[in-house]
Amino acid sequence: MIIEIKPEKAIAKIEKIATTIVKWKMGAPALLTIESLRPLNFIGSQIMYFLAPFAEVIFNSTEYEEFAALIEKDEYIKLLLKRIEELDDEMYATEREEKIKIRKRRRNKIKIFFQKIFKRKE
User: Fold this and answer.
1) pTM, rounded to two decimals
2) CA separation for the pair 80, 31 (Å, rounded)
3) CA 66 to chain centre
């Protein structure tokens, strides 16, 4: 049985998926993978429906079918990509800024070190 997913429920699922991906710090790999496989999203959903009887042993059948319905529509895939990007930027913006500051400090230390060495030789 192929089910339809309501837009409100789809958005809630997208939020849950995106949050999980970003918490695991897999935003960039997920974006790359989803974007590269986006032309095949309909085929992927149909394969998921085909494998549903076997997957029900491992996964909750309702959630599995809802996910298959979700990836079937291109608009939901675009929304998922956008939400992963937004969450990744929000959650790790300060962490990235700190890493950039640390790199700048290291470069400046190295630069000062080499300036001192070359001044001694002159």
Assistant:
1) 0.73
2) 9
3) 19
CA 50, CA 39: separation in Å to the nearest integer? Answer: 19
Instruction: Spell out, as residue ranges, where the chain has pLDDT lower than 70.
Output: 1-2, 120-122
24's tokens: 């695991």
* C-beta neighbour count of 92 within 10 angstroms: 14
CA atoms within 13 A on the CB side of 48: 21
- Gap between the Cα atoms of 55 and 114, Å rounded: 61
Domain ranges of the chain: 7-92
CB-based contact 45:4 (threshold 8 Å): no
What whole-number distance in Å separates Cα of residue 85 and Cα of residue 36? 15
Contact present, 18 and 80 (Cβ < 8 Å): yes
For residue 54, what are its two tokens? 């076997």
